[in-house]
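PROTEIN–LIGAND DATA SHEET

This sheet pairs a single protein chain with one bound small molecule, pyridoxal-5'-phosphate, given as SMILES. Inputs appear in the order they were entered. The predicted three-dimensional arrangement of chain and ligand is reported afterwards as a token string under its own label.
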Amino acid sequence: MYMNSQTLDLQDPLKRFRERFHIPQRDGKDLTYLCGNSLGLQPKTAREALNHELDTWQQLGVEGWFESLHETTPSWLSYHERCQQPLADIVGARPAEVCPMNALTVNLHLLLESFYQPKFYKTKILTIAGDFPSDQYALETHIRSRGLDPDQNLIEIQPGSDGLIATAAIQQAIAQHADQLALVLMSGLNYYTGQVYDMQAIAQTAWEHGIYVGFDLAHAIGNVPLNLHEWNVDFATWCSYKYLNGGPGAVSGVFVHERHHTPKTPRLAGWWGYDEDRRFKMTKGFVPMAGAAGWQLSTPNILALSVHKAAIDITAEASMAALRQKSEQLTAYLAQVLEPFADHIRVLTPSHPTQRGCQLSLLVKNDGKALFNFLTDAGIIGDWREPDCIRLAPTPLYNTFRDVWQVGEGLDRFFSRRPFAAR
Ligand SMILES: Cc1ncc(COP(=O)(O)O)c(C=O)c1O
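PREDICTION REPORTED AS:
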């Protein structure tokens, strides 16, 4: 029998953070929201931060780029700088190596422009099969835009019979294809299986073979510990609407390792990446800003950035170390709660904590959609992936052990009311 959820909640050092979020309700009761892997919840400070910038716009107009209503808030021109420290803390980088900008798929194309340099026989990109569709489309069309055939230039590593891809298989594939590879690009945490890949080991192998490596961190950022600088990752991008709670379609961000912070690194440029001191001189010839900020193209959306900053400040305040500690406990608890239903549900996500974040992906043997609908009706919000997968992601900032316990209650009611054999 597993531990009492109330005792675990009482012992939770992060429990005060739940109050900082709006928990969606139904009939006046908090929903059991386990869908932070898809859309994180709204921080209560988001509205205040947004209103502040609306006030700035209202009262200062264009002067808002250079002035601010409060000395504690940045002028719009330096807004991205105020996001750099918290983002750097979250991804394990130096502040100049990160910058909020654009959306994830847009950033993937921009970073491919910089780090996919096909030459002679080294024209191929190594990735994993079944990665997020947007990434697949980006790779396919980007390779084609260089006049190359994606069927010839994309190597996909297939999962094993357990549906997972071992880090050793990725390292082996890098070594095997090294003389043809221009780039390794893959997710750090698989959106479907919930598997975390050993990014450090993959980056190390790619480095040994002189191949650039980049990660899509959509499901990793704010979820698992990252140390991108030390791991020698060349580049990464993410979205901030999942575990960073930046709101639907929230601004993405990039990491570019400092060894690439040179004007020689190829890129597609725009005026917002131009050296800030000279940007408004409007002269010919692109001169990049130092650091990841030099990959910006367009005027940032300050209203979106204000919410983004309010949200990442909370994650940085809680600290990834403390979040991870609670996350491991919450997810281990979820795994325990699922155990009695092993006849009906197979957990696809690896069981070892180093190979998973907070999400567990459940493969339901029969009638998974009915179970999903039942849980949703019972106020337990996860998400459904065809053909038979329910993803549940207890997130340490706002989920409780009681939320996880509710899952067990829901499953118990579903399976006892409709025994598996009778369906
Ligand atoms: C792993 C992964 N990659 C890429 C994307 C696409 O992100 P965007 O719509 O911001 O381009 C998502 C969106 O959920 C995702 O989960």
